[in-house]
Amino acid sequence: MPYITAWSSEDVLADPEATPVLRTGPGRTPTLVYPDEQSQDRDRHGILWRRVTWAPGEGQPHFARVHPTRHRRVMLRGACQICTAPASLWMTAAPAWQAHLERLGPDAPYLTMDPPVCRSCAATAAAQCPNLRAGGFVFLAPRRWANVAVRGQVAEPSTDSFSEPRLVPLPGAVTTGAGASVDLRLVMAESLVSGLFEVTVHHDADAVAGLGQRLDAPARP
Ligand SMILES: [Zn+2]
To answer: Is residue 220 part of a domain?
Structure first.
């Protein structure tokens, strides 16, 4: 079973405890908090993450859905999304790569939420990942890569609501084209986003030398 696959017992979107609240008041900068916040609720940038239950193996696997915490772990470590060994291949859906070329061109960084895989799991990913199976896939060989943004919702203090999920660049990340920066105190992150730079495309995994040079420091969540 792929490590990042979500299980039916991990369905958290309906859990009111998982939603942070906006702390406001005179002289206070509006900030998203959990009333019972723990240190692991924030990453090293101070960004608040959506809480999720952890129950792999319980209930049914949802192959089309990714568990946010396990997804984040492999993205932080550059680990295989299926077996968690050190990864060496980026795979992405061929239509997504084609859309990137048409919209931004071959020289633009490729932003992706698809964690990499190791060589022995590439065939499993191609067969089991609905995203890759549907329209074919390509291997991407970037010269450099880094985790450059989070995808998440941004609180809007004036209306006490959340935006649709959007990309928020990480502090200090290399330029990505991910959009204007926002107040990180208002962000509820759901996914890490990797940026792949100077990408060469391959259809043969043997032509790919590895993930590319990593620009940010590998870390544990
Ligand atoms: Zn693997």
So the answer is: no
